[in-house]
UniProtKB/TrEMBL annotation:
GO terms for molecular function: transaminase activity. It comes from Paracraurococcus ruber. It comes from the Bacteria. InterPro entries: Aminotrans_V_dom, PyrdxlP-dep_Trfase, PyrdxlP-dep_Trfase_major, PyrdxlP-dep_Trfase_small, SP_NH2Trfase/AEP_transaminase. This is Serine--glyoxylate aminotransferase. Keywords: Aminotransferase, Pyridoxal phosphate, Transferase. Signal peptide: none annotated.
Length: 395
């Protein structure tokens, strides 16, 4: 094929509507382009501890935080390795691909995994969770693991209800929460909700490059850690506590801390509650567009439980006979719009619109308009006017 016959590369800036990693503000990109510094220098320690205080404000905790060079999966593993001994039981609330992945990791580490099954489109039944806890008379369940915001299905699991189920059953299990796609986008209250280990990452609501993750750890979890027997070294909280910076058994990713310092400044400048309100507003507009498109046998919201809608990502189920990955390819190659794909058994069945992090109304409206254009070009049935439906929620 000649160069002239090839599909031309679309011009203009990439519209990145993937649910993670997310758009990085220019000021954060510039902050991470900091010259190399000695992480043992007192001037860097000031930056480090200011960032730790800022993370605690976002997590809404006064307890410990440990940080790692690695993605959110690293923080998952740190959480499990520091709390469990071989053969102990983790009860996982099924919510989608990422709850399954966390469960598989636990199994690989020698932890016994039990699951509270759930319809991926509606979410877990809290009565089923409480029944499972009540039946555990010997308290073999060491911890309950829940993905606060299941990125693969566009579903939020209400953590206060999980805490209420634990308390209602009088069960002493630890509460572990994956906040990777919720922290800095959805309200999260570690101490108030009795979360014992909160798992987070840099690349979503915190608007940073991928590469740093962390765990917020309660005093109760630290007591459990003292008797844990699973092998660990780099992730070992006790070893970290002896370090001057209480994290990183090795080189500290200093450039990410300069980026984090700027990220926290932006969050503080906007106000955390205003950040949540903005995510709610943009998510509502996105869902209105999808619900409008669903006419004429068009795409529809994957999550069908209004009480569980995610405010950081919307999963969109394609009509029968239409491949979501082929549609995403059109959106990317023709219009420079990057959308998230379906994960695991949902591959090819849905696409995902991320609306978290550094995002505003023009960006989400541009994304929705381009999705509608890609639906038209791809021959996917839909009811035109989704952007107008989104606008109606924003006016």
């Amino acid at each position: 094929m000649s160069a002239s016959a090839a599909t031309p590369k679309p011009r203009g800036r990439l519209f990145f509507a993937n649910p993670g990693p997310t758009n990085i503000p220019d000021s954060i990109l510039l902050a991470t382009a900091h010259h190399t510094v000695d992480f043992n220098d007192p001037s860097f320690s000031e930056v480090y501890w200011a960032c730790m205080d800022g993370l605690k404000r976002v997590l809404k905790t006064r307890q410990e935080i440990f940080l790692y060079t690695g993605s959110g999966h690293a923080a998952w593993e740190a959480c499990l390795a520091n709390l469990f001994s071989p053969g102990e039981v983790l009860l996982v609330l099924e919510s989608g691909h990422f709850s399954q992945s966390w469960a598989r990791m636990a199994t690989d580490l020698g932890i016994e995994v039990r699951t509270v099954p759930a319809d991926w489109r509606r979410g877990v039944d809290m009565a089923a969770l409480q029944a499972e806890l009540a039946a555990d008379k010997d308290h073999r369940i060491k911890a309950v693991g829940v993905v606060h915001n299941e990125t693969s299905t566009g579903m939020m699991i209400p953590l206060p209800e999980v805490r209420a189920a634990l308390d209602g059953a009088g069960h002493p299990a630890l509460l572990l929460a994956d906040t990777i796609s919720s922290l800095g986008s959805l309200d999260f209250r570690m101490d108030e909700w009795g979360v014992d280990c909160a798992v987070g990452g840099s690349q979503k609501g915190l608007m940073l490059p991928t590469g740093m993750s962390f765990t917020g750890v309660s005093h109760k979890a630290l007591q459990a850690h003292a008797t844990s027997k699973l092998p660990k070294h780099y992730f070992h909280w006790s070893h970290m506590m002896k370090r001057p910076l209480k994290s990183f058994l090795g080189t500290v990713p200093t450039s990410l801390f300069f980026g984090l310092q700027e990220s926290l400044r932006l969050i503080d400048e906007e106000g955390l509650e205003n950040v949540f309100a903005r995510h709610t507003r943009l998510a509502r507009a996105t869902r209105a567009a999808v619900q409008h498109w669903s006419g004429n046998n068009g795409p529809q919201l994957f999550c069908t439980n209004p009480g569980r809608f995610s405010d950081s990502v919307t999963a969109v189920l394609m009509p029968e006979g239409h491949d979501a990955d082929a549609f995403r390819k059109v959106a990317m190659q023709r219009f420079n719009l990057s959308l998230g794909g379906g994960l695991g058994p949902l591959g090819g069945k849905l696409f995902r619109i991320g609306h978290l992090g550094d995002l505003n109304e023009p960006m989400i409206l541009g994304t929705l308009a381009t999705v509608e254009l890609a639906l038209k070009v791809s021959g996917v049935p839909y009811q035109p006017g989704g952007v107008d439906a989104a606008l109606a929620t924003l006016g």
